[in-house]
């Protein structure tokens, strides 16, 4: 039995809610570090994702996108999605992925207590004032602040 026959369903379309994906191959989100320091999409990032889409992946989940920059950033170079100024680049990225028949999804991210002052220039925030192992002491968020982040 060949692998194609053995894993026949892997290459069949699947519906996820209202979206039909061409196969069941999914690229999980991984931070690759090709964004700008300001959180924008770069040509290198677009080329990286285009190669994966060209390779036949059905669904690409684009790496973590900070929803509360700069406070919630998890690294020195991380995509951001918390302002309309990021929309054009993210839109171009989605278009490139879809050009090859893949669907695009995006991972929303807030680093919370794992955020580092050396990257953000700010004290981390978290539901509790409990630092990550070896991390900076976070400021405890109020319920209203948590709701605003959500």
CATH architecture of the largest domain: 3-Layer(aba) Sandwich
Strand percentage:
15-25%
Structural class: alpha/beta
Radius of gyration based on Cα positions? 18 Å
- Helix tally equals 5
Separation, N- and C-terminal Cα atoms: 49 Å
Shape: elongated
Overall structural domain count? 2
How would you sum up the major sheet? 4 strands, parallel
CATH class of the largest domain: Alpha Beta
Q: Tell how many strands the DSSP assignment holds.
A: 8
Helix-residue proportion: 25-40%
What would your notes on this structure say?
By secondary structure, the protein is α/β, with parallel strands linked by helices. The chain has two domains: 3-110, Rossmann fold (3-Layer(aba) Sandwich), CATH 3.40.50; 123-150, no CATH class. The chain is 27% helix and 19% strand. The chain is built from five helices and eight strands. It has helices spanning 3-6, 43-54, 87-99, 117-120, 143-149, and strands spanning 14-16, 19-21, 26-27, 59-66, 79-80, 103-109, 125-126, 139-140. Strands 3, 4, 5 and 6 form a four-stranded parallel β-sheet that branches. Strand 3, helix 2 (43-54) and strand 4 (59-66) form a beta-alpha-beta unit. Helix 2 packs parallel to helix 3 (87-99). The relative contact order is 0.15.
